[in-house]
Every structure is written in structure tokens, then in C-alpha cells.
Amino acid sequence: MRTYTTKDLSEYLANDWILSLLCENEAEWEKDIRTHQWLLEMDNKRMICSDVYGDLLREKSSLKVLDVGGGYSSLTKVLAQHTNYTLLDFMAHGGVLNSYLKEYGINWLNMDWYDCEEPGDYDIIIANDIFPDVDQRLELFIDKMLPHCSELRLVVTYYNHPRFYTTRRIDDTELLTFLSWDGEITGLKLRKYISRSNLTEVEIEEMKYLTDSIYWNMRQVSYLVIKGDLSSYTRE
Predict the structure, then answer these.
(1) What are the residue ranges of helices labelled H in the chain?
(2) Is the peptide bond before 132 cis (omega within 30 degrees of 0)?
(3) pTM: predicted TM-score of the whole model, two decimal places
(4) Which of 34, 126, 138, 196 sits CB 3.0–4.6 Å from 132 for a disulfide?
(5) What confidence score (pLDDT) does residue 235 get?
(6) 124 touches 86 (CB < 8 A)
């Protein structure tokens, strides 16, 4: 597992190749899409992107890739050109993609991942920065996706100081307050997958005490890879 530090960010910025790739592939209409704007504006997100998607952006392959909650950016076109790529995302941050899907060869499942009854089988499934801070169904997601992939790439975000949100149910007027998970809870949920991941017991323990952060709000970010049930796939 890799947990990002300010030192990591400084080293990445010596060669911010994701920013260059974003700008090279940017179309005028994409400038209004928030998830594209975030990548342009936030160097920490670009650094994470370089780890999670780097091999897929650099070289073409026959890999089947499912990107869950990945949003859209000018890099999505590159991913679709380089792989057999599917985006599973209801686009919570906005963006109209329908007229461009066929042109760019993007398969788009416009739904919540939990409602995708048969996601299909993939070489790689990616969930970048939605668990558990945005979606606390982390364990449900992992258990649902592992039977359908060779490799699950997971970026988890958590806070080691209290951070909470007040929100309203979309099916009622009730107000709810959600406390974001800390490193201890996140590590507890990930421990059951330790034998099939690049996560260690030492790292799980360290998650409780991390303080260095690449975000102004002190969010902790860790990237791990979990071996899926289809790991016998032969990659070309």
C-alpha cells in the first residue's frame, strides 16, 4: 500500500506528466466538466492519477477496465483508446456525455455501482477516491467486485481528526450527520483482504496515526491493490 505524503507530491511535481496529457487532449466542451477541472487545478489528484491509471495511459493493451465513480476528464478518452474501457458513474458532479460516447468509444453505465446487478468480468476494476469518505459501503463494494476482476485498484480517503457532514435524504426532509471514517475504522474494514493485497499489518496499524497530508483539510489518502478472483487472467 502507498500512503501519500507531501514529499511524494514534491517529487511528482518534478515531472507533472498528467497535467501535460490533460492539456494535450483537452476539448473545449470538457472545460465545463467539474471532474476535468479538478484534475487541472489539483496537483495532488494528478499525482494519484499517475499511480492508479499511469500504465493504462502510457500504453495500449487489450485489458478490460471498469472505472467506478471515476468521473470524466480529457484522460477518459485516452483510457478508452488504450483499453476496453467502461465508466460506471452516475456523474454526481455533472457533465453531459451522451453525444461523445460513440465518438470516443466509451462504454458508460449511468448508475450507482450497487444497482449494477451484473457488472461483467474485467482485468482491472478501479475505484479512485470514493471510499469511504464519499461512499461508506466500502466492504460491500469490495465483496461485490472481487469475483469480477483480476485486480482491484482502490484509493481510500479518511481523516485522523473529526470531520463530519450534514446532509439531507433525497427521499425525505430528514437531516443526517455523517462522521467520516478515520484510519482505524478504514484499516479494520480492509484487514480481511490483507492476504490478497499489498497491505500489511504494520500499515494497518500506522493508518491510525498518520498526520502528514497532501490536502489542506488533512485528508489521508492510501492506494492499495487487491487480488481479484479472476487473477488467472493472462494479459497480453
Answers:
(1) 6-12, 17-24, 34-41, 43-52, 54-58, 74-82, 98-104, 138-145, 183-190, 201-206
(2) yes
(3) 0.93
(4) 138
(5) 40
(6) no
